[in-house]
Amino acid sequence: MSLRKIVEAEGPSFIQSPIGTIQAGIEKVTFVAVCKITSISGSKNLLDFNVNHIGDRAAFERSYSFEPSVADDSENFIKQAYLYLKTLPEFSGAEDC
């Protein structure tokens, strides 16, 4: 399972020159990213997980945490993590892919 969303990111841009790499300022990019959970750990009280955001213009990883449900009829922890992401404003409009 993964999610697809539009990402707006800001970070340093670099120019490669004969004398080395030079920071050229700050660049803002907007791109479509596929977001996939790459690791998950924790306990029934708190789960921590990492999400890779991979697109054609950039890639980065971010960490998240939530309190999972341990009820008999609840989804597995990975499914719960994806459902949790969809509740966050930054994942508004994200689609399953």
Give a written overview of the molecule.
The chain has 97 residues and is mainly beta. It contains 1 helix and 5 strands. A 5-stranded antiparallel beta sheet has the order 4-3-2-1-5. The longest helix has 9 residues, at 77-85. The chain is elongated. The N and C termini lie close together (7 Å). The relative contact order is 0.25.
Q: Distance between the terminal alpha carbons, to the nearest Å?
A: 7 Å
Largest sheet: 5 strands, antiparallel
What's the mean pLDDT score?
89
Trace the largest sheet across and list its strands.
Answer: 4-3-2-1-5
Low-confidence stretches: none
- What's the β-strand tally? 5
Helix content: under 10%
Shape: elongated
Helix/strand-derived category reads: mainly beta
Give the radius of gyration: 17 Å
Q: Report the β-strand fraction as a percent range.
A: over 45%
Number of helices: 1
Compressed to H and E, one letter per element, the order equals EEEEHE
Provide the descriptors you would attach to this structure in a database record.
97 residues; five-stranded antiparallel sheet; 1 helix; 5 strands; 59% strand; elongated
In short:
This protein has 97 residues and is mainly beta. The protein has one helix at residues 77-85; strands spanning 3-17, 20-42, 47-55, 59-66, 95-96.
Secondary-structure map with pairings?
Blueprint: E1 3-17, E2 20-42, E3 47-55, E4 59-66, H1 77-85, E5 95-96
Antiparallel strand pairs: 1-2, 1-5, 2-3, 3-4
